[in-house]
Design brief:
single chain; alpha/beta; Rossmann fold; 2 domains; 6-stranded mixed β-sheet; 6-stranded parallel β-sheet; 11 helices; 12 strands; 40% helix
């Protein structure tokens, strides 16, 4: 039975084993998938030990995504531009690194019937979460993507790095001067119970608001967006399952259905 892992610290809260075991069951793939707690400074050793035990692939979560980037012998373009790796594959003595977070976001937006082509997108934040989704969003041919951040120079750096005429940088307040079809919160604000510093006028009755964070209840950003009359609010649970589905496809060559797993996770969250 092929062995897979998710490496992280902390890792006990990870839903990845449930997700991948569900995928394996529905696609009739014989795999084992477990969590692996890694001490800081021990990531490379842990991965090499797993390879030595015959491991076929692994997911990587905080705080090791940048280390995984350095460890990989070969990188996908989306991993290189994201500056982080969340999916490792081991084959023919080499470590292959990929990043499926952005594809997970894109697929979840499409699953929710959100039109990406020719859309005007506001991406809040210029950290790793934002950086990881820019290339897959650009691949869907939006009209424009405004990257808004408290420190504008960080957003400008991303615009320069991705080198697309569809990208522009802004501060939070200046971003409110435009109208958007989609607003994506890639900041950590919801984790701390705060809001990104955008004004109510940024959200219209036609705006879809998406938060990469998820929880038992709507995140603070989505509660706020709903109060402003947003057309639709979506949390990041589907993105979590979507990025896992992309990892599963990389490893097994089979694209699993995500709907049933998302519904099961929603039920589990409601009971927590």
């Amino acid at each position: 039975m092929d062995q897979y892992r998710v490496f992280g610290n902390p890792i006990k809260q990870s839903r990845s084993p449930f997700i991948h075991q569900s995928f394996a069951q529905t696609t009739k793939q014989a795999i084992s998938y477990e969590t692996s707690f890694v001490e800081l400074g021990n990531f490379t050793t842990a991965v090499n030990e797993f390879i030595g035990q015959g491991g076929k692939g692994a997911n990587v979560t905080v705080p090791f995504k940048e280390e995984a980037l350095e460890l990989a012998d070969e990188l996908s373009e989306r991993a290189r531009l994201a500056g982080a790796v969340n999916t490792l594959s081991f084959s023919k003595g080499k470590i292959y690194g990929d990043n499926t977070d952005g594809e997970g976001l894109v697929q979840d937006l499409l699953r929710n019937n959100v039109k990406l082509e020719n859309s005007r997108i506001l991406l809040l934040g210029a950290g790793g979460a934002a950086r990881g989704v820019i290339l897959p969003l650009l691949a869907k041919n939006p009209n424009s993507i405004v990257i808004a951040n408290r420190t504008v120079s960080k957003a400008e750096n991303l615009v320069e790095q991705f080198n697309s005429s569809k990208l522009s940088a802004s501060g939070f307040e200046q971003a409110s001067d435009q109208v958007y079809d989609i607003i994506i919160n890639a900041t950590s604000a919801s984790l701390t119970g705060t809001l990104p510093a955008i004004t109510a006028s940024t959200v219209t009755k036609n705006t879809v608001c998406y938060d990469m964070v998820y929880g038992k209840n709507l995140t603070p950003f989505l509660v706020w967006a709903k109060a402003q009359g947003a057309a639709k609010v979506i949390d990041g649970l589907g993105m979590l399952v979507g990025q896992a589905a992309e990892s599963f496809f990389i490893w097994r060559g089979v694209k699993p259905e995500v709907e049933a797993v998302i519904e099961q996770l929603k039920k589990a969250l409601a009971q927590e």
